[in-house]
Write a structure and sequence with these properties.
CATH architecture of the largest domain: 3-Layer(aba) Sandwich
Bound molecules: nicotinamide-adenine-dinucleotide, magnesium ion
Strand order of the largest sheet: 4-3-2-1-5-6-7
Radius of gyration: 21 Å
CATH superfamily of the largest domain: NAD(P)-binding Rossmann-like Domain
Strand content: 5-15%
Number of domains: 3
Length: 407
């Protein structure tokens, strides 16, 4: 009984949230759900509350919270329903919470993840945008508040597993030469460049190996996801930009690698299923069942590797430039990218215009110093304004798609 951990799942209704609950459901003797949060998918949240009986649930707005509370009362549930950003922070930092899964998408996940860190929790970080926008503040809070940070992003979880146990943030001391991030290259790795103008949201979200939320799926198709992951890795592992290499590996079986000075390369492999890094982090330092099918190397047969093509994927270069620039450059890039991806998904602009918008925004706003969270949100707001202006001036509607979907 003493080892029963109270888990808060921020972003429970999303792809990572659902996979997290799948793993938790396999271990009722280890985990109890303290709180579940969702933005708008109230029906799914209702079902999760009935199944996992959390003490708290958090949704976006008051009317939705009221409706959900009434439905729950009729169903005999005692879960307390709250709403709004402050409530997300409150459950993330709750005195009874042991582990917090930070799986909200976008910069919306920053404050709640930081609240969990500041409260000294074990934080399982899926929300890469928190590190991209506020990396130095976030990592400083982890150290100052004694939080335990375990990456969920499959590449970073693989690197975490491939570094020496207890790695303390000094690559040199650990004998590490390079970090190698693998990337599938997304669905358009081999498309003729001129066809990228015709890409639909459905095509962009049909990732060859992973089933994910729509925002990260589009990021994978532009390879901005890998760009954000370079920035994420830099903060997580205290690695300079030139120490982080990207390798295209279309099979997504090797999740990332660490190269040591003696020539050894240590990697983590497995089927592409996010329940593996989630179970690794939930059970850490023990290993627990994830419900994932085991890797059949003979059936896989062949693993391929290629260098990334920066002409096809300019977002990779933009992310490296932002990381090198420091200050709020990565927060500017992230905010412009959030606007660009939403506009593409809403058929307001073409897929190939995403990097054009990013270049336009970055050229129009100068970098700003990053001293505190206010700077991050100021940069975020400026980049969103600039991106919206860019859209009104340059965007041409995307191709007709079968359905108009919102994120
Ligand atoms: P998703 O879109 O499937 O789910 C996002 C979740 O966040 C949902 O529960 C949604 O209700 C909630 N949410 C959205 N906007 C919100 C807001 N403004 N305020 C509060 N809650 C909000 O996304 P996902 O694919 O599960 O990704 C979640 C995070 O994990 C992202 O940062 C993503 O980059 C990262 N990640 C995901 C995967 C994956 O396989 N899906 C892999 C690696 C990293
Ligand atoms: Mg990843």
């Amino acid at each position: 009984m003493t080892s029963l951990r109270n888990v808060v799942v921020l972003g429970a209704t999303g792809s990572i949230g659902v996979s997290t609950l799948d793993v938790i459901a396999r271990h009722p003797d280890r985990f109890r759900v303290l709180a579940l949060t969702a933005h708008r998918q109230i029906d799914r949240l209702f079902d999760q509350i009935i199944a996992f009986v959390p003490r708290f649930a958090v949704v976006d707005e008051a009317p939705a919270a009221r409706q959900l509370a009434e439905r729950l009362e009729r169903a005999g549930s005692a879960t307390v329903v709250m709403h709004g950003a402050k409530s997300l922070e409150a459950v993330a930092a709750h005195a009874d919470a042991d582990t917090v899964m930070a799986a909200i998408v976008g910069i919306a996940g920053l404050r709640p993840a930081l609240a969990a860190v500041t409260a000294g929790k074990q934080v399982l970080l899926a929300n890469k945008e928190a590190l991209v926008t506020a990396g130095p503040l976030f990592m400083e809070a982890v150290r100052r508040c004694g939080a335990t940070l375990i990456p969920i992003d499959s590449e970073h979880n693989a690197i975490f597993q491939s570094l020496p146990a207890g790695y303390g943030g000094d690559l040199e001391a650990a004998g590490v030469r390079r970090i190698l991030l693998t990337a599938s290259g997304g669905p358009f790795r081999e498309w003729p460049l001129e066809k990228l103008a015709d890409v639909t949201p459905e095509q962009a979200c049909a990732h060859p190996n992973w089933v994910m939320g729509r925002k990260i799926s589009v990021d994978s198709a532009t390879m901005m996801n890998k760009g954000l992951e370079i920035i994420e890795a830099s903060w997580l592992f205290n690695a300079a930009e030139h120490r982080i290499e990207v390798v295209i590996h279309p099979e997504s079986v090797i999740h990332s690698l660490v190269e040591y000075v003696d020539g050894s390369v240590i990697a983590q492999l497995g089927n592409p299923d996010m329940r593996t890094p989630i179970a690794h982090a939930l059970g850490f330092p023990q290993r627990i069942d994830a419900g994932v099918s085991y890797l059949d190397l003979v059936k896989t047969g062949r693993l391929n590797f290629l260098a990334p093509d920066e002409r096809r994927f300019p977002c990779l270069r933009l992310a490296r430039e932002a990381l090198r620039a420091g200050g709020c450059a990565s927060a500017l890039l992230n905010a412009a990218n959030e606007v660009a991806v939403a506009a593409f998904l809403n058929l307001q602009m073409r897929f190939d215009q995403i990097p054009q918008l990013l270049e336009g925004v970055l050229a129009s706003i100068g970098n700003m110093p990053l001293r505190d969270l206010a700077d991050v949100f100021e940069a975020d707001a400026r980049a969103r304004q600039s991106a919206t202006r860019w859209l009104s001036q340059h965007a041409t509607s995307g191709p007709a798609a079968p359905s108009r979907l919102t994120a």
